[in-house]
């Protein structure tokens, strides 16, 4: 089975580019150019250099001794939380800002949920001297205040999305509306492995540095390139896509995805997209989507702003329906407790999104000699207030 995007951007039956006519020239320009640009030696050189000197890559692969002892297995953490700006998101924004420059764009727009993608976008815009507008749901603006302040300080304009659940989906709607109105000078930096083709594939390729590094780092530490499992949380699915990429066609590597169950998969307040979703189209791609019987999008819920999205990237929809990936969903409570557990066992405060991946130990028992690599997608500074309130610290 093939788990990479086809030329038209399909992963099995999912993907494609379902876009309004007004967006066609933009998306088509990107589709025709992205693969060519990504292999240009100048582009690669600039991308690699910035990842090294600006982002601080390679990010460490850390053997978590106390966590391993607790769960009687070998746990490695891929430390994307140590990247400049505090999450994996910056790998993609560096790639896309360089792409935008090659395409002669002068204005950048983005959507954000947790604010990490917004901060990563505002950061690269400051770096390149580009104008930046970030759309963010009104609810997320309130629950991720430190990131809103960072974006403003970096010179970005943060525009609130006031419709629907006032979270990530609604911010994405606003960003698409902006792009339709500004088709010539603007590049839309989508922050996850979602959207019309070529976005899911382009974002996945920029994030694939994560699994590229895991391979040689694990070889150094364990004498083999392939772990038994790779684990990641899934919002739209970019940290997961990057973590899985070089293992997708290695059948001995188990691929594990953890989605946000919110207050419980069947509580009516959930973002467990694969478990609850049916095939549908959202933000330009065909994927698994939470919807009513007549096809209206169901409002998602998760304590984590970055996982609070009713759809999932088309690669992940394919991994789910083909059975290549094992999918779990973690409740708010399981995630928060797993975040506190990591903090107190390893001295690492994870983002609440990442805490969902760590909740895998509440759902699956690994063997003592299994090597389990978990994507530590982001750091928890932005979530301190939420942790403190939740645990009454
Ligand atoms: C730290 C962190 N992890 C994970 C995610 C989820 O996004 P994705 O599924 O694209 O990795 C986000 C989104 O904001 C995030 O900030």
From TrEMBL:
GO CC list: cytoplasm
Needed cofactors = pyridoxal 5'-phosphate
Which keywords label this protein?
Amino-acid biosynthesis, Aromatic amino acid biosynthesis, Lyase, Pyridoxal phosphate, Tryptophan biosynthesis
The family database entries (SUPFAM superfamilies) matched by this protein are listed as: Tryptophan synthase beta subunit-like PLP-dependent enzymes
GO MF terms listed in the record are: tryptophan synthase activity
Database matches in InterPro entries: Trp_synth_b_CS, Trp_synth_beta, Trp_synth_beta/beta-like, TrpB-like_PALP, TrpB-like_PALP_sf
Pathway recorded for this protein: Amino-acid biosynthesis; L-tryptophan biosynthesis; L-tryptophan from chorismate: step 5/5
**Record domain Tryptophan synthase beta chain-like PALP: where:** 56-378
Per the record, what are the reactions this protein catalyses? (1S,2R)-1-C-(indol-3-yl)glycerol 3-phosphate + L-serine = D-glyceraldehyde 3-phosphate + L-tryptophan + H2O
- Enumerate the transmembrane spans: none
EC id: 4.2.1.20
Role of this protein: The beta subunit is responsible for the synthesis of L-tryptophan from indole and L-serine.
Family listed: Belongs to the TrpB family.
Indicate what this protein is called per its UniProt record: Tryptophan synthase beta chain
| Organism, as annotated | Cellulophaga baltica
**Encoding gene per record:** trpB
């Amino acid at each position: 089975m093939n788990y990479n995007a086809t030329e038209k951007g399909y992963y099995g039956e999912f993907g494609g580019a379902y876009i309004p006519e007004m967006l066609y020239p933009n998306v088509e320009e990107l589709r025709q150019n992205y693969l060519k640009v990504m292999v240009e030696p100048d582009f690669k050189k600039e991308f690699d250099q910035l990842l090294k000197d600006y982002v601080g890559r390679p990010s460490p692969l850390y053997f978590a001794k106390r966590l391993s002892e607790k769960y009687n297995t070998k746990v490695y953490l891929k430390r994307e939380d140590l990247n400049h700006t505090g999450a994996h998101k910056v790998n993609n924004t560096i790639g896309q800002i360089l792409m935008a420059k090659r395409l002669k764009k002068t204005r950048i727009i983005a959507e954000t949920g947790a604010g990490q993608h917004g901060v990563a976008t505002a950061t690269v815009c400051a770096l390149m001297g580009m104008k930046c507008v970030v759309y963010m749901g009104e609810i997320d603006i309130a629950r991720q205040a430190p990131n809103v302040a960072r974006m403003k300080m970096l010179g970005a304009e943060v525009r609130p999305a006031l419709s629907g659940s006032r979270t990530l989906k609604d911010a994405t709607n606003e960003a698409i509306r902006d792009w339709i109105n500004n088709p010539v000078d603007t590049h839309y930096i989508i922050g996850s492995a979602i959207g019309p083709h070529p976005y899911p594939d382009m974002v996945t390729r920029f994030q694939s540095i994560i699994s590229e590094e895991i391979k040689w780092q694990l070889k150094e530490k364990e004498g083999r390139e392939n772990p038994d499992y790779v684990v990641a949380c899934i919002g739209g699915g970019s940290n997961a896509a990057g973590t899985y990429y070089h293992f997708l066609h290695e059948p001995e590597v188990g691929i594990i995805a953890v989605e946000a169950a919110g207050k419980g998969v069947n509580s009516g307040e959930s973002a467990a997209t694969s478990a609850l979703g049916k095939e549908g189209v959202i933000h330009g791609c065909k994927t698994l989507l939470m919807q009513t019987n007549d096809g209206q999008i169901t409002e998602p819920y998760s304590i984590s702003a970055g996982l609070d999205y009713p759809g999932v990237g088309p690669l992940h929809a394919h991994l789910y329906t083909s059975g290549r990936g094992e999918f779990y969903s973690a409740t708010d409570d399981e995630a928060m407790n797993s975040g506190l557990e990591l903090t107190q066992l390893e001295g690492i405060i994870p983002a609440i999104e990442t805490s969902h991946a760590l909740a895998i130990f509440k759902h699956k028992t690994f063997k003592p000699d299994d090597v389990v690599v978990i994507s530590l997608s982001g750091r928890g500074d932005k979530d301190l207030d939420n942790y403190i309130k939740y645990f009454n610290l």
